[in-house]
């Protein structure tokens, strides 16, 4: 088996990254798992407090945009595999400030590719640069069809364009320089530890505090939701069994119109907080639409399911309940991430909308 590997996970203090780090630290005691993260507003070491004393875990505070720090990191460790999740990840922030997305998502990825190429040279057998990407690179669907691995890229937001740029650079380094790489493109994730700027945790937090729940436009946009631990399991499987040079789509086959999802969430919140049916739903407030708002995403993950045997586990209703339970019982986590600049962010994004 794959003993004694040193694995670099970037963005491991973020939402998905923390679930991936935990899974690797627990499941692979022979691996040394190095989490490199800048700790932006979205990075939170509290996400890893249950595993951060494990002997096979190290944390390195690194900004991947800083070439020198990345080079020094690769000087300190001899990495066998890289799972690259560090990114600016929120579409709304990419609309108000695109530059950071170009720096972290494109320049940061190229810095890592250069470091991997330099470290592995012509001895890249058994090594892997695994780049975690999004279905948003494929653009927006109408009411029909799904994204497959061969769908042409057509990103529409600064976030998705920067992720598409990073995917292209990974493919270019693989094709031109022989850096062994895999890319996966996943649909919207939900679950514990997601920063409450994204739809589901933002709505849970607002409902909890009886604040208006902002639904963009008419709430008719559709997303394909996947429980975060299903994504982490797919990443584990692809890292160990995926074919170098390939791309895999990951998705829950679980499409929801935003307004239907929010209504379901409201019903769960009424039940969990002992409110009368309909109390939470009364908080729904339709607000000005996001500029360039992609209508629909839907992922065809039959390649991953057929070739590697991956399957998403919880039904959406169960995953959502688990998520609500987590937010309701992790007051301290929520309080900590909402302190600092969150109020400022919230006002600038939603006042006057
Ligand atoms: P997140 O915003 O919760 O976490 C991102 C992490 O990256 C944070 O810990 C942050 O501190 C770190 N980071 C940001 N800039 C950095 C820099 N310059 N140097 C080092 N670290 C930096 O994001 P997430 O939702 O966990 O997404 C992780 C990855 O998965 C991203 O690449 C994202 O594009 C991709 N993805 C996300 C989703 C989703 O629904 N959230 C779906 C598909 C793909
Ligand atoms: P989000 O969680 O930001 O993910 P993404 O834009 O990457 O899909 O948004 C999910 C959907 O919910 C998207 O269609 C935008 C919408 N949305 C709202 O209606 N209200 C909100 O306050 C937010 C944050 C998102």
SSE topology sketch:
Elements: E1 6-10, H1 15-27, E2 32-37, E3 57-61, H2 67-76, E4 81-84, H3 91-96, H4 99-120, E5 128-134, H5 158-177, E6 181-186, E7 189-190, H6 199-208, E8 213-216, E9 222-224, E10 226-227, H7 228-241, E11 247-250, E12 255-257, H8 258-273, E13 284-287, H9 302-308, H10 316-329, H11 331-338, H12 342-350
Bound molecules: nicotinamide-adenine-dinucleotide (NAD) and thymidine-5'-diphosphate.
Structure description:
The longest helix has 22 residues. Helix 6 runs parallel beside helix 8. It is built from twelve helices and 13 strands. It has a seven-stranded parallel β-sheet, sandwiched between helices. A two-stranded parallel sheet has the order 7-10. With 353 residues, it is of the alpha/beta class. Nicotinamide-adenine-dinucleotide binds next to helix 1, helix 4 and strand 5.
Radius of gyration: 20 Å
Report the β-strand fraction as a percent range: 15-25%
Form type: globular
Number of helices: 12
Compute the number of strand runs.
13
Determine and state the CATH class of the domain at 6-191 and 225-254 and 296-315 and 343-350. Alpha Beta
As for the CATH topology of the domain at 6-191 and 225-254 and 296-315 and 343-350, it is Rossmann fold
Quaternary organisation of the protein chains? single chain
Mean pLDDT: 96
Termini distance? 55 Å
The sequence of SSEs as H and E is: EHEEHEHHEHEEHEEEHEEHEHHHH
Provide the helix percentage.
40-55%
Largest sheet: 7 strands, parallel
């Amino acid at each position: 088996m794959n003993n004694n590997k040193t694995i670099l996970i970037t963005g491991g203090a973020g939402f998905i990254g923390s679930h991936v780090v935990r899974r690797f630290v627990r499941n692979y005691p022979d691996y040394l798992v190095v989490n490199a993260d800048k700790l932006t507003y979205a990075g939170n070491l509290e996400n890893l407090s249950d595993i951060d004393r494990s002997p096979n875990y190290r944390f390195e505070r690194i900004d991947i945009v800083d070439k020198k720090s990345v080079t020094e990191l690769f000087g300190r460790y001899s990495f066998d595999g890289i799972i690259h999740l560090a990114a600016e990840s929120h579409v709304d922030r990419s609309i108000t400030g695109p530059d950071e997305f170009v720096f972290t998502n494109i320049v940061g990825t190229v810095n890592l590719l250069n470091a991997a190429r330099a470290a592995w040279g012509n001895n890249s057998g058994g090594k892997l640069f695994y780049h975690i990407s999004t279905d948003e690179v494929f653009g927006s669907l109408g009411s029909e069809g799904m994204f497959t691995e061969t769908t042409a890229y057509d990103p529409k937001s600064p976030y998705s364009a920067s992720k598409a740029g990073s995917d292209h650079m990974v493919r270019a380094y693989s094709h031109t320089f022989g850096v062994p790489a895999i890319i996966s493109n996943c649909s919207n994730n939900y679950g514990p530890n997601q920063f409450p700027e994204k739809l589901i945790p933002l709505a849970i937090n607002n409902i909890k505090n009886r604040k208006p729940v902002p639904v963009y436009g008419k709430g008719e946009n559709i997303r394909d939701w996947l429980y975060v631990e299903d994504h982490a399991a797919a990443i584990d499987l692809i890292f160990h069994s995926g074919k170098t040079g390939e791309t895999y789509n990951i998705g829950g086959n679980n499409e929801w119109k935003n307004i239907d999802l929010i209504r379901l969430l409201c019903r769960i919140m009424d039940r969990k907080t002992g409110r009368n049916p309909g109390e939470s739903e009364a908080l729904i407030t339709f607000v000005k639409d996001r500029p360039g708002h992609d209508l629909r995403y839907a992922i065809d993950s039959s390649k991953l399911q057929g070739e590697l045997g991956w399957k998403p586990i919880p039904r959406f209703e169960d995953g959502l309940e688990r998520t609500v339970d987590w937010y309701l019982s992790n007051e301290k986590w929520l309080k900590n991430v909402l302190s600092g600049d969150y109020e400022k962010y919230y006002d600038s994004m939603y006042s006057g909308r």
